[in-house]
Amino acid sequence: MLLKIAKWLFQLPGRLFGSIFRNRLTIFIFFMLIAAGVFSAKRYLRAHQHDDEFVTTTPIDYNRASLREMPLREAREQCGGPLHDNAGQAWPASAGYLHQPERRANAGLHRLTLDNQGNDFAVLVRLETPAAPQQLAEVFIPAAGNFDVKIDSTAEHVMKIKNIKSGCNFRSKAFTLGKDSNWRMPLKMSSNSGIEFQSISDREF
Questions:
Q1: How far apart are the first and last CA of the chain?
Q2: Is the pLDDT of residue 34 over 60?
Q3: Which is nearest to 155 in space by CA: 109, 201, 107?
Q4: What's the CA gap between 60 and 192, in Å, rounded?
Q5: CB within 8 A of 66, min separation 6: which ones?
Q6: Is residue 148 predicted with pLDDT exceeding 50?
Q7: Distance (Å, rounded) from C-alpha 15 to C-alpha 95?
């Protein structure tokens, strides 16, 4: 019995496909159907593979990633530095005023030393009034340098700093000097500098 079943299964392909291979037309149609099936299967698999990649791939914010892990050279490029000149004018060779408004002699003015000795880059510093924005002074200080300015110790001030090496800009919160006659303000923007700074754009500087 098992021998008959095995013989029948062995002869089944010939019985099924024997009629197909009797003439050339049926052979051509048979292979065309096989080719069409293979082509359709490839297109189906390719389409579903593309859909899977689209669904499972998480978009990457390359700009945010670069800000998290940004070497110093890329940080300078991000802020547009280094700044080789001041709007077409060469930077001074030593610390000094770039802009100093005229003031009448006033006993209320006190000396403020802008101390850049903790930095290995030059800075451009602007002192302004926060309430009615008015620029009080604009100073250039080279790396490891310092400069003295005269300001009203009782009024509120805002200080803006431009890092000449990186091109990045920073702004302090409003501050007052108090009653002391002389003040020294380090321009190194660290957590223990005494004044909080925040990053700002070129338009805000």
A1: 98
A2: yes
A3: 109
A4: 35
A5: 74, 78
A6: yes
A7: 102
- pLDDT > 90? residue 145: yes
Residue 110's H or E segment, with its range, is: strand 109-115
SS3 call for 34: helix
pLDDT, residue 24, reads: 64
The pLDDT of residue 114 is: 93
Tokens linked to 151: 């300001």
Q: How many Å apart are CA 129 and CA 166, to the nearest integer?
A: 26
Residues 203/177, Cβ–Cβ less than 8 Å: no
The full length of the chain comes to 205
- The residues with which 152 forms a beta bridge, in sequence order, are 109
- What are the Cα distances from residue 40, in Å, to 28, 37, 45, 68? 18, 5, 9, 46
In the predicted model, what is the mean pLDDT of residues 107-127?
A: 88
